[in-house]
Design a protein that fits this description.
338 residues; alpha/beta; TIM Barrel; 5-stranded antiparallel β-sheet; 13 strands; disordered N terminus; EAL_dom
Length: 338
């Protein structure tokens, strides 16, 4: 099991008084003279701290000559419990404790952006977009920090809970909700997705109303692993989508292998599609491939009536973008074509 599994759904709080337990091979001999070592043997060195300031000072000394991101254990001197963490993750949490607190506490809400059936003009569903409640923090900044601090699994899981709750609070049965997820936070799909399935049961949501899509910033290197994740979602009755088609998932072979229920065409191919011949050629290819495999096509980033009209005439199934509606805490219930 990966070391990162410890962060999945577990609130990790740094003890105010504790000790760092480090493998001696990660500290060079010269550096050892600079550090206040409380205990050491042939394999281990222990550094106690009584304040966060002490901890920061020790970490800065440890990082001064070490360029590698090694792992250590933090020991709570009161409870005698410990947990592993990388030195870089620990340092990031100490630098921005307010962001770590937002993630730990799950201080989120979900804004919903409408997705419309382009042939009937009816609202088909909504995409859930994460927002913070206590502080105005850019979601991109929060996800970037989560990756740097080792909290991406926790953030991804709590974002899913917020999205399912929004579905329960605002959407009718049968309306889909599209939920982004990070494949890199799911190590063993059958185990890691149990929490998601529990949330679905808790809020009594029909599984087929949930569409899980690969988040746009995620760089997928293991396609077979991604297929196992998508297959696990589908085996539970949920739907899956590939985001940003055209920037990594545009080949017929890839779509045939992963067999998503939906594909979302990257907004760069939607922009000025009514006049851009290269974008039009790409969209023709996407529609042809999707029809061959039986995949529903969603065009994201529609911003003008001209783009909407051209895509409608092309036969694109679903549309999303500011022309249709912006993300809102309480979603719009219908779309009226201007």
């Amino acid at each position: 099991m990966s070391k990162d599994c410890q962060f999945c759904g577990t609130s990790v709080t740094l003890p105010n008084k504790g000790a760092l337990v480090i493998n001696r091979k990660n500290v060079d001999v010269e550096q050892q003279s600079e550090l206040l070592i409380d205990y050491q043997d042939d394999d281990t060195m222990v550094f106690q701290y009584t304040t966060m300031s002490n901890l920061v000072t020790t970490l800065e000394l440890l990082r001064k000559r070490n360029t590698s991101n090694f792992w250590l254990h933090i020991l709570n001197l009161d409870t005698k419990q410990s947990f592993p963490i990388s030195i870089d993750h620990l340092y990031e949490r100490l630098k921005h404790p307010e962001l770590a607190s937002i993630i730990h506490n799950g201080s989120f809400t979900s804004h919903l952006q409408p997705i419309v059936d382009m042939q009937t003009n009816e609202v088909f569903g909504y995409e859930s977009l994460l927002r913070t409640t206590e502080q105005s923090v850019n979601p991109g900044e929060l996800f970037s920090y989560a990756q740097q601090s080792g909290l991406q699994s926790m953030l991804d899981q709590k974002a899913r809970r917020s999205a399912v709750k929004a579905k329960s609070d605002h959407l009718a049965k049968g309306q889909k909700i599209f939920i982004n997820f990070l494949p890199s936070t799911i190590y063993v799909p059958e185990f890691c997705l149990k929490h998601t399935f529990q949330i679905v049961r808790e809020f009594q949501i029909e599984p087929e109303d949930l569409v899980f899509e690969v988040v746009e910033t995620e760089k997928v290197s293991d396609v077979d692993h991604l297929k196992r994740i998508l297959d696990t979602y589908k085996a539970s009755g949920m739907k899956v989508a590939l985001d940003d088609v055209g920037t990594g998932y545009s080949t017929l072979e890839m779509l045939s292998l992963l067999e998503p229920d939906y594909l979302k065409v990257d907004r760069s191919f939607i922009r000025n599609c009514h006049i851009d011949k290269e974008n039009q050629e790409f969209l023709y290819q996407v529609m042809e491939r999707a029809e061959m495999i039986g995949i529903t096509v969603l065009a994201e980033g529609i911003e003008t009536i001209e783009e909407w009209t051209w895509l409608h005439q092309l036969g694109v199934d679903l549309g999303q973008g500011y022309f249709i509606g912006k993300p809102q805490a309480v979603p719009e219930k219908e779309f009226i074509l201007p």
